[in-house]
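User: I want to check something. If I give you two sequences, will you return the structure for each one separately, not as a complex?

Assistant: Yes, each is folded on its own. Here is the first sequence with its structure:
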Amino acid sequence: MNLVDVHCHLNHELFKQDLDDVLSRAKKAGLKRILISGVNPPANREVLALVKKYPEMLRASLGIYPIDALGLAEGETGLPRQTVPINLAEQFTYIEQHLDQVTAIGEVGMDFHWADKEETYEKQAENFRKIIRFAIKVKKPLVIHSRKAEEECLQILAEEIKNNEIPVNQHCFSGRKSAMTRAIELGHYFSIPPNILISSNFQTLVKKAPLGQLLTETDAPWLSPSKDRKNEPAFVRETIKKIAEIKEITEKEAADQIWQNYQRVFGD
């Protein structure tokens, strides 16, 4: 089986001491590709450095996290902090300069968990539209963060992306059933983390979404299926097992289809 983790943060400080071991376990588990997601300019630089160091398995998804774009720090996250608003034009130029090393744009989107909706909606929406238009320009798939902003993100994506110009992957999608249905109808993909083992929301999403629109992620080091361990790419196997169980197919059938989905969305 060829397995894939389309969204994780291996540049997190929790991986600094054991990254080689983490990647070794991932390879042993069957991982062929791991997309590391950036969230701001310094994180994007770290992502590219890791991909250069481990080119066989790792791929880069360069992002502009909605909170970081505003210069609002969440606190100590283990990732590089962004305490001033991101200059989007400068970051777009940086991404274009390294486009041959970039597999996707993300994570990007909107967030009303960490930011007040009334105070920040207009600016977040403006930033998001600019990022979508940039992704269309450079013909790269989008990886979407939409915490507490699922409907708003879907509306903007529907307005900005016509005729499926670029693929859209909904990372860790937590919207209501109506939002799930709309995203499915829009042709979006959904990357499912290992905590599907304990999350009824992700189990419902897998039931509703066609297998041809599912992907696997970890969001490592977060969203572990086990509270006493940090998440890591090898745990994708747990997601595959659960998807196979829900869809009533074999693990190999689930893994093979998700690998095909990955190739369709992200290419190499």
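And separately, the second sequence with its own structure:
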Amino acid sequence: MKFVHRIFFRASASQRRELEALGVQVPAGLPDIPGSNIDPIVAFDLDEHHPNWLVLAPILEKWGALGVSHTEFSKEEISSARWLEIRCNQHGYPEPDDDFGYLQATFDLTDWCHQCYTGMKQDRPFQMKREPKVGRNGIWVLNDN
């Protein structure tokens, strides 16, 4: 079993060099505004088996790098497990899907911070173009990105 962290943040050139010196391959990333001098947002997976994890973790925390974690299991671990998890399949997008229009159609955005995405209050149901055809995949979620 290994714990994998999806890391994403705006990486300056010096931060990129520091990560690469510690053995992390950092993708190029893209700035939000083409032609701007804003540091690009980079995203990469980093697992706790990385030889420099104990050095990297506090550095990434200090930089405010956000991480979403998940666990990966070997085939042997899965086949010998007493319990397994259920994962949802993503199916469709909330509507209207142009320019994130579903936000105004689904949420009260009075207290919403557009930088950190906090403060939204869902006050209407999500809308979809059509009924999903999920077949055997009876558990699903909407894509929201």
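Because they were folded independently, the notes below concern the second chain alone. The mean pLDDT is 85. Residues 53-62 form the longest helix (10 residues).
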